[in-house]
Amino acid sequence: MLNILHHYFGTKLLNKIDPEISHAIALCYLRLLNQVVKKKEIGASILKTQIAGMEVPSPIGLAAGFDKNAEVFNATLSLGFGFVEVGTITPDPQFGNPKPRLFRLLKEDALVNKLGFNNKGMLYVSKIARKPKLGIVGVNLGANAKSIDKILDYTNVFEFLAHLFDYVTINVSSPNTKNLRDLQKPETLEKILQNVNTINVSLTRQVPIFIKIAPDLNKNNVIEILNVCEENNVSGLIATNTTINPNNLKKPTHFEGGLSGKPLLKPSNKILKILAKRKIASTALIGVGGILSAKDIYEKIKIGASAVQIYTGFVYHGPRHIKKMEIELKNLLLHDGYRSINHAVGALIR
Ligand SMILES: Cc1cc2nc3c(=O)[nH]c(=O)nc-3n(C[C@H](O)[C@H](O)[C@H](O)COP(=O)(O)O)c2cc1C
């Protein structure tokens, strides 16, 4: 029964209606699933790995933006994800940008979104995130659109939520909140990190902190960000968020917002490669952007990602695709003689 529901949730039916409505329907179904799931299936041991010290049964994670309010993390974990990231969550609830704000580019295997951090805010999330989690759940944090002190927003939301999750991602790369990407500049990023680190050291359990970056950065920008991260105890970088560059499309056309899916594979891998070549061993990389097949995952792993995250590929192909890619990834590793996914990490740049 669940299998049939998963199939319809993941494929043609939902992909025919307005994308934001279909997302709401999927969430309704997942809320129900969330009530009944008790445990997560254990995948193939060859895929077991660690991200910044956290044990995960598979390197395939759910990217931020799908479960914006942390309402369905146990359900999404039960679909086969090795870990999930909820959010982006801001201090205050906010509606986001006016609708319509989510579009399918079917011929490009892509989505364009200009949602603008629509979420129910940190108070709501703090109430529901206390329930036991079936696996690793990270929280992605952002600033409110109307905030006059965006740096303070990160401090406040970190203080409120960090202790409830396994890791925290500081999102300074959404293109849909005005000037948010400016926070990737070394001086401002450093300030955010100093503030959250001060809180982190006072927690009973310190949480790994990740920084999520944009694909539309040049090499110098990326290296500057990496340096700031490594000087400020950041456990890893998530590369990347959506792109604003229409030239990444097969048929470049103007759009407003962030582009995800297939056209993002190359630009996000380019950023991943710069990071992988320069980073110190203890900095973890999570590769995101344009994953539609196990081959895409394998490529990111061989560039240097210890894990990956998916959004658009999941929306287009549904939960069964996650399990399928897991099996295919296992076969790709075995074919190349790897006994553990860890041995393949960074194979292309060694
Ligand atoms: C509809 C939509 C909403 C998103 N919302 C967020 C968000 O709230 N926070 C965030 O860090 N990334 C968000 N993202 C970006 C994804 O997490 C991911 O970085 C990006 O989509 C690239 O992965 P993909 O090509 O597999 O979709 C969103 C993406 C989409 C398509």
The gist of it:
This protein has helices at 2-10, 19-36, 73-78, 121-128, 150-161, 186-202, 219-231, 265-278, 294-303, 312-317, 319-335, 341-344, and strands at residues 49-51, 54-56, 60-62, 83-89, 102-105, 110-113, 136-141, 167-171, 209-213, 236-239, 258-261, 284-288, 307-310. With 350 residues, the protein is an alpha/beta fold. A hairpin with a 4-residue loop joins β5 (102-105) and β6.
Q: What is the topology?
A:
Blueprint: H1 2-10, H2 19-36, E1 49-51, E2 54-56, E3 60-62, H3 73-78, E4 83-89, E5 102-105, E6 110-113, H4 121-128, E7 136-141, H5 150-161, E8 167-171, H6 186-202, E9 209-213, H7 219-231, E10 236-239, E11 258-261, H8 265-278, E12 284-288, H9 294-303, E13 307-310, H10 312-317, H11 319-335, H12 341-344
Parallel strand pairs: 3-4, 3-13, 4-7, 7-8, 8-9, 9-10, 10-12, 12-13
Antiparallel strand pairs: 1-2, 5-6, 6-11
Oligomer: single chain
Can you summarize the main beta sheet?
8 strands, parallel, barrel
Instruction: Provide the helix percentage.
Output: 25-40%
The ordered H/E elements are HHEEEHEEEHEHEHEHEEHEHEHHH
- The name of the CATH superfamily reads Aldolase class I
Overall pLDDT level: 93
The total tally of domains equals 1
Distinct ligand kinds? flavin mononucleotide
Stated plainly, the CATH topology is called: TIM Barrel
Secondary-structure-based class equals alpha/beta
Number of helices: 12
Runs with pLDDT <50, length 5+?
A: none
What best-fitting shape do the alpha-carbon axes yield? globular
Text of the CATH class: Alpha Beta
The overall strand count is: 13
Under the CATH scheme, the architecture is Alpha-Beta Barrel
Using only CA atoms, what is the Rg? 19 Å
Give the N-terminus to C-terminus distance in angstroms: 46 Å
Strand content: 15-25%
